[in-house]
Amino acid sequence: MSLHIGIVACSAEGAALCYRTICIEGGELLGPHQHPEISMHGHNFADYVKCINANDWVGVAELMLSSAEKLAKAGADFLIAPVNTVHQAFDLVEHRSPRPWLHIAVEVANEAKHHGYKRLGVLGTRALMEGPVYREKLKIAGIEHRIPGAEQRERIHRIIFDELVRGQFLPRTQAYLTEVIRALKDEGCDAVVLGCTEIPLVMTQEQSPLPMLDSTRLLARAALRKAVEG
After folding, report:
1. Which of 4, 87, 182, 221 has its CA 20 to 30 A from that of 97?
2. Whole-number Å distance between alpha carbons of 157 and 17
3. How much is the pLDDT for 140?
4. Is the pTM of this model over 0.90?
């Protein structure tokens, strides 16, 4: 019997892609139409955005823990959050949580090590690119990282909140992100982390100048493996 997965949702598009990946790839792993039991809870996304903009990681942690409590009561055996930025509050959450978690950046780092990548470009919100989430986890894994310049970070941040989380995936945005990834390649990166869970919906591997580490799908696959293997 598979374990019950609890998804702590934040932005709709990232949560939906994670849920969809578990369901579709569950069928490939377990047999037609099969997947582990899944429950999802999400607070008002505006509440998360307000906390993130205020650098209020205690507030983010409280939202995550509230969802965790609800999912534990629904029967979830472990938890995932398919949104990278909120993992800056992870240390405030983990020891108080009613259920264990998988950490999205740990799963990305594990995949990078598996492929032997040495230096990763990291894309995401401004807080994610400039913050400790990937810096710390990649350092532990012995992997270097690079982030885009300040002007590019600001534009990517606006793209995420003005377009991607609203389900807008535009050709001009794909073209811009391709340029950013090409610049990271020129800095010696051998792969790029899609550290915003919506970027995989606008970027394809065929378009990217570097191999892509899709944080959303990597977390979903890790959750699927844990659910099946116990």
Report:
1. 221
2. 20
3. 96
4. yes
